[in-house]
Amino acid sequence: MHPAPLNALYAFTLAAEHQSFSVAAQVQGVTPGAISRQIRTLEEYLGCSLFERGARGVALTREGQEAFQITRKSFDQLQDLKFIVKRQIGRTITIHCSLLFMRYWLMPHMQNVIDQLPGIDLAYSVARPDLDILNSDSCFIRIGDGRWPGLRSDYLMPGDLIMVASPRVANQLAQSAEADTLRSQVLIRSQHSGHLPDPWDWWFSNVWKRSPADFTFLNISAEAMAYQAAKDGLGIAIGRAALLQNELRERSLTQLGVRASQNGWGYYLVYADRMNNSPGFRKLKRILVGHGGAWDA
């Protein structure tokens, strides 16, 4: 008897884990039809149905549940083997983070981090929402409350919000952050992606405690462009204090008022527990936590 097709086994495991052909297709980067065909191939190979298919979705049959227990354990073991092999023959560690964090915090610190990791190759990548952290051999920098089920996290730095403007505009306002003072100013809002509330919406609700209806907004597609617009004197931007330290030191931007802690959220290094088996990663973690702890805002 020929071995079961590996692609079909993986497609089945993803679909069983998520109880959805569509989600499995998104994870694998294929169409739901491709997932369905792979599972049909496996069912024909095994001679039994693995899923009950209905108008509201799919559900595992008894045979499917038994098969899932076997394939999930097998793929977990393969993942662990892959990590061990990589640890033996490769010394590359990938850090995933948002483009904003990479540009405003990681890049300015990159050379210092590299200098402290001789013999370790670092790779940097913009994190995608569909990345599976639990089964990844990479680490991630994310903003949140430090709780990601099944994962380890180490606190790096606060995610406090500040309002910023060009020095000229800030001087005109006497660096005031009072709502009544800023009502005549343009507030620069960028398209906000991710799981956190829009910074301006949060600021109006929790700091100023008033409606934004009487304020004028300039909407810009990216946060980095919003900061540039503020530098150019087009209005007031809002951002993470930890990411704007270079701009504040160089005085291309000036802080208005004080920082506000957005529900206590901060930046964390997030990773699967097995990453601690890598000496290179443990050293990288100490370096990043040290840099975060030395944050001088």
Any overview of this molecule?
This protein has 297 residues and is an alpha/beta fold. It folds into three domains: 6-77, Orthogonal Bundle (Arc Repressor Mutant, subunit A); 90-159 and 265-293, Periplasmic binding protein-like II (D-Maltodextrin-Binding Protein, domain 2, 3-Layer(aba) Sandwich); 161-260, Periplasmic binding protein-like II (D-Maltodextrin-Binding Protein, domain 2). It is 44% helix and 22% strand. It is built from eleven helices and twelve strands. The protein has helices spanning 6-18, 21-28, 32-46, 62-89, 99-115, 167-172, 179-182, 199-208, 223-231, 245-250, 279-293; strands at residues 51-54, 57-60, 92-97, 121-126, 139-144, 152-158, 161-165, 186-190, 216-220, 236-240, 254-260, 266-271. A five-stranded mixed beta sheet has the order 4-3-5-12-6. β3, α5 (99-115) and β4 (121-126) form a beta-alpha-beta unit. α1 packs across α4 and α2 (21-28) crosses α3. The longest helix has 28 residues, at 62-89. The radius of gyration is 24 Å and the shape is elongated. It starts with 5 loop residues before the first helix and ends with a helix.
List the helices and strands and how they pair.
Layout: H1 6-18, H2 21-28, H3 32-46, E1 51-54, E2 57-60, H4 62-89, E3 92-97, H5 99-115, E4 121-126, E5 139-144, E6 152-158, E7 161-165, H6 167-172, H7 179-182, E8 186-190, H8 199-208, E9 216-220, H9 223-231, E10 236-240, H10 245-250, E11 254-260, E12 266-271, H11 279-293
Parallel strand pairs: 3-4, 3-5, 8-9, 8-10
Antiparallel strand pairs: 1-2, 5-12, 6-12, 7-10, 7-11
